[in-house]
Structures are given as C-alpha cells and as structure tokens.
Amino acid sequence: MQKDALIIRPGRPLEGSIEIKGAKNSVLKLMAATLLASGTHTIENVPKIADVAIMSDLLRSMGVTVSEIVDGCLTIIVPAENEVTPRAPYELVEKIRASIVVLGPLVARYHRCEVSMPGGDDFGHRPIDFHLNALEALGASFETSHGYVSAATPGLLGTRVVLEFPSHTATDNVLMASVLAKGTTVIENAAREPEIIDLADMLNEMGARISGAGTSRIEVQGVDELKPAHHRAISDRVEAATMAAAVALAGGNVTLVGAPSIYMDMVLEKLGVIGLTITVTSDGLSVACSERLHATDVATLPYPGVATDYKPFIVSMLSVAEGVSIVTENLFSGRFKYVDELRRMGADIRTEGHHAVIRGVPRLSGAQVKGTDIRAAAALALAGLAADGETILTGASHIERGYEDFPGRLRAVGADIERL
Ligand code: EPU
C-alpha cells in the first residue's frame, strides 16, 4: 500500500461549515507577478498546499526570499534586478506545470530567461505555443534546446495580440509581460476567468494600467516600473464546488464560508439541477441535499462556462444520479482517464472520444482506486462517500497539491475520511 493513501467510508450526512481557502490558480500567478518589482510583497489568503510550496521553491531558486505561510499570509522579497537569476529549472517546472507563468514576468523585466519546457499532464497533451506566439508578438525571441526555452528581448513593445484560444495561463503570461512593455497592448480573445481579474487587480495595485480584465479584450498601457504588492487573493471557486459535491454525495447541509458565488453562476445552476439546494448567504453559500441526485447533461467550456476542473466531481455525482447523463469535455483530451477508476467502484459510464454517457446507479461500491491528478483524485475520494464499504484511494498526495487539509476539513463536518 502506498503511503499517500486515503481511506473513505460512507457515513452520516455532513453538517457544519467549511471555510473556503484562497484560489490556487490565482495565488500561483500572483506569486509569479512579484518578479515584476523589487521589494517586499505580501499576499494574503494563501492556501497551505503543495503547489504553493513548489512555486515558493521556484522563486527561491531564482534568489527571491519567500516566507512560510503564517495565518494565510505569504511575504515575498524580490531583490534588485541584477540579483535575480531568471531561470526556472527542470526539477521544479516538472513538478508544477503552472510554473510556466514565470515566463511573462521574466521576459518583461529581466529581458532574458531560461525556462524548462513543461511536460504533459496526466489528462493530456499541454503545449505552450499560444504563450510563445503571444510573447513573440510583443518582441521576445525564443530558442528551444536541451529541454529549455531561452528567451531574449531588447525590451517588449506593446501590440495587438490575438489568442487562438482563450487559454488561462497564456493570458496570465501576456498580461504580466505587457504591463512593462512600451506603449499599448491589446489582448483579444483573452481568458475571462475570475483569477485573471484577481491578477489584473494586483498588478494595478502595483502601478500597472490594465482595463478590461474579465472580458475577452484586455487593454494595457505599459509603465516603466512597478512597486511591490499587498494583495488578498480571491477564494477558490473550484474548492467551493468540490465541497458542494461532497454534500451532494454524502447528503447534509453545509455552509461554505467565503465561497465566491459571484464567479460560480453556471456551476451553481448545474448543481441545482443535479439536486442540491443552494442559497447564497452574506458570507458564502449554503448547500443542502437530502434526496437522490438527478441526471443532467454538462459540457465544459472556458469561463463563464462550466470549468473542466469541476467535471470530475460532476461525473462522480452523476454516477449515482437517477437517469442518464452526457458529459462532454471540450478542453483537455485525456480528462476522462479517471473514469476507469470510477467504473471499478461500480459506476456505469461509457466514454466515446470527448463524451461520457453516465447511467446512474443507486450506490457505488467501495474499492481500491488510484488518483492521477488533483481534481480526479478529489473526485474519487468524494465518490467514496456514496459507496458501500471502504474506498482506498492511492495517489492521494495529488489532492494536497490543490487542497489544504482535504481529509481534515471534510472530517470536521462529519465525513469518514482519513489518511492511511
Ligand atoms: N493550449 C494549447 N496551447 C497553449 C496553451 C493551451 O493548445 O499554448 C490548449 C490546451 O492544450 C487546452 C486548452 O488550450 O486544450 C486550454 O488550456 P489552458 O491554457 O486554458 O489551460 P491552462 O492555462 O494550462 C488553467 C488551469 C487549469 C485549468 C485550465 C482550464 C492554472 C495553473 N491551470 O490551465 O487548472 O484546468 O486552465 O480552465 O491556472 C487545476 O487547477 O487542476 C488545473 C489543471
């Protein structure tokens, strides 16, 4: 048995409240953005997760001082420009694909850098051509050799960048590069995710001049210099949806304190159709479920559509829903791999290309299953709440990459889930 395993048993309905932590996919970019200004930066609402620890190590490897997280607060001290080593080594990039977001700030401020090429992910091929094409349009040139992308520029110049697809991290990279480019940059077909708005807010607090973040057209007036940030990250909509799915699968009534409901319209609508009673409260969301779930069809899309990150939980829920559902994945080719594990738990799911047909069964059956990425592992753990007998989830350390104390926080509302 692997050390990083969780054991999950079905139990009583969940009751109480869960505090939703800061958004992983915001905090990692905010950390990269500190490279744009020397001095002491403070980021609040930082979750204690493995990806933040790896991103901290990556910044440290460049000569940046990164504190431990104290009460959700991270202090980052970026030294003078000539004391930063603009290099992201393979050993760290290989552990966290999101580290590609250091490329934009490094090119913009240090005018040269070397970043290891990120590999694929368990859920498919993940190229970086959109990032490189967009940064090239701003005046960077790239060479790829020995697994590294080397970038150089005499200084970036603002221009109109049209993204082929509203890629989240490509938008992050162009945004962070353009704030120090000379003149005006317009990013067309930009990603509209709430975490992009958060990044733009922090950059504006640092002195950048960005408008339109959260729409598909972002305009940036370049400035010569930025000052250090003091920023509070938004809360994690994916974590909030994960905890709502836990309530759907175990039953109960839980308040998700701090859940960013304004950024969750589409997923909340789907969760309502599936059978959750959701109330937006002054401090977050209240979610309750007391009956069998209902089937529905779901297709993943870039924000404001239903995010691909929600899909594994949705599939777990639909596995035990009354009726037949069709789930379509439009972003990542391999993001149905974990379905084989759900089948081992008795789910009746047939996949065909990027579609899954799910015939709901009344209960799943606890089994030994393996998680292979953050969301898939969390979704399998939650499926264990609706399965008879014990579910043993190996590969559970993937969950720690994106969720602070996942088993402990679920246990606090009554779930029977613990580390082996
Ligand atoms: N794509 C390209 N070329 C590129 C970039 C993307 O072909 O240069 C393709 C991808 O292969 C994919 C699509 O474009 O088919 C969309 O990918 P996107 O670039 O938007 O994804 P990402 O920026 O790499 C972020 C999140 C993911 C989340 C996706 C989709 C971060 C660090 N990661 O990835 O989050 O699934 O957007 O919303 O922000 C997670 O949190 O577990 C996670 C994987």
Explain this structure.
This protein is an alpha/beta fold and 420 residues long. Helix content is 30%, strand content 26%. It has helices at residues 24-33, 50-61, 90-93, 103-110, 129-137, 168-178, 194-205, 237-250, 265-274, 311-319, 339-344, 374-383, 397-402, 406-411, and strands at residues 6-9, 14-19, 39-44, 65-66, 74-78, 87-88, 112-116, 141-145, 148-152, 160-162, 184-188, 209-211, 217-221, 230-232, 252-257, 277-281, 284-289, 298-299, 324-328, 348-352, 355-359, 364-365, 368-370, 387-388, 391-394, 416-419. α1 runs parallel beside α2 (50-61) and α8 runs parallel beside α12 (374-383). The radius of gyration is 21 Å and the shape is elongated. Uridine-diphosphate-2(N-acetylglucosaminyl) butyric acid is lined by residues 24-25, 28, 98, 126-131, 165, 167-170, 307-309, 331-332, 374-375, 402.
Structural class: alpha/beta
CATH first level of the largest domain: which class? Alpha Beta
CATH topology of the largest domain: UDP-n-acetylglucosamine1-carboxyvinyl-transferase, Chain
Mean pLDDT: 96
The helix fraction, in percent, is: 25-40%
* Low-confidence runs of at least 5 consecutive residues: none
Largest sheet: 4 strands, mixed
Bound ligand species: uridine-diphosphate-2(N-acetylglucosaminyl) butyric acid
Tell me the distance between the termini: 9 Å
Total domain modules: 2
Estimate the strand proportion.
25-35%
The largest sheet has its strands arranged as 23-25-1-26
- The tally of beta strands, per DSSP, is 26
Name of the CATH architecture of the largest domain = Alpha-beta prism
